[in-house]
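Worked Example 4.2. Read the sequence first, then its structure tokens.
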Amino acid sequence: YAGFMAVSDKVGDEKYSAAMKSMGDSFQWKLGPKESDANDLAIGQTYMALFKQYKDPNMLQPATEQVDRMIQQSDSRDRPLWWWCDALFMAPPLLAELSQITNRQNYLDYMDRQWWKTSAGLYDQQQHLFYRDARFINRHEANGNSIFWSRGNGWVLAGLVRVLQAMPKDYPSRPKYVTQFKQMAAKVITVQGADGLWSAGLLDATAHPMAETSGTSLITYALAYGINEGILDRKQYQPHVISAWHGLVAHIYSDGRLGAVQPVGDSPGTLKPTSSYVYGVGAFLLAGSEIYALAQY
């Protein structure tokens, strides 16, 4: 859904956002039933984008009420609410966008506290990558390197993009997000495959020899955004983005289906060339939206 909205915005074709409006209407603009589960909040990002387009308060009210309850119930907890790195794409952008739309900084402040709780537990300050969750901190690939999942780190990079898009330029901790984004970007380009794609396990391509498109799409989306926004150096990063895009397009079948998407999981895993899942397609659309913008320069 996020990919649909990004493409609609970039290419000016409203059929994609119209499909999302129909989806929102069918769900009565409600989030998922588990109020503090990041996965159940992710759909709210699409609602926020549609609200900006249509200005219909019905698109906003259910999400606002649920987020208010979540903050009241969980803000005093010391342990991270978002204990797995994928969650940094699912929930923080909604809170940042809600803060932007309602002009209520408490949403952004809550997000900020929770982001850095998760980062403190899962971000490796030396490797500049995120462990998927705490189970992986002392586990290793066959070659002895730490286990860092491509899609998990792609989720984080894409989450950073979407938070930065909604966060005010003068927000006090914004420089920390930019620094983390730049650190991760600098790391991932050092482990990109010769075919332009990233393997499911970032630090052991031998153990995970088949390139994977969902993680690659999310990483490509983030790198292209960084170039477009002047956060990343164009001369250094654009060749990596172009190589990644060519690699992704090579995995589109003649019927339009995107292949080489790792199935649902929580770690580097096996996949087939024909594997295709909706989140992979959405990530590809996000990447395409920024590639489209990059091509305008």
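Now turn to a second chain, presented in exactly the same format:
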Amino acid sequence: MNELLSTGLWPRIKELAKTAEKKSAAIAYVTDDRYVKFKEGDVLITDASDHAIKSGQTSAAVLKAALKRNAQIASISGLHAKVYVFDRCAIIGSANLSKESQRRTEAAMLTDQPTVVSSARLLIERLRTDGEV
């Protein structure tokens, strides 16, 4: 399956996240967890730098809630990636996990191609290793 998503992006992300046993993502800015709630066993890489938090690009409250649910979170200042992995599929595109992004016209590729999903998972793992906890 390869789908280019735009208008249906957020409902699809919500559906995949809700049914996924494991979620991992490298998302530059996170201000809203209505569509994806990270919990135990999940990994989130984001820009949680002082600048991103102070400017409102990333929400400390959303990250604290994910930490309370025992998600693994790492920060990389200047991160610009938008990669989601839900079990055996990946979404790669332009969408931050933010209210602002939900108001914009975003585009993303949804795929279940094993090599792409594996590469996305490896990218997130490498970023987790490189990031600050």
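Notes for the reader: The radius of gyration is 13 Å. DSSP finds five helices and seven strands in the chain.
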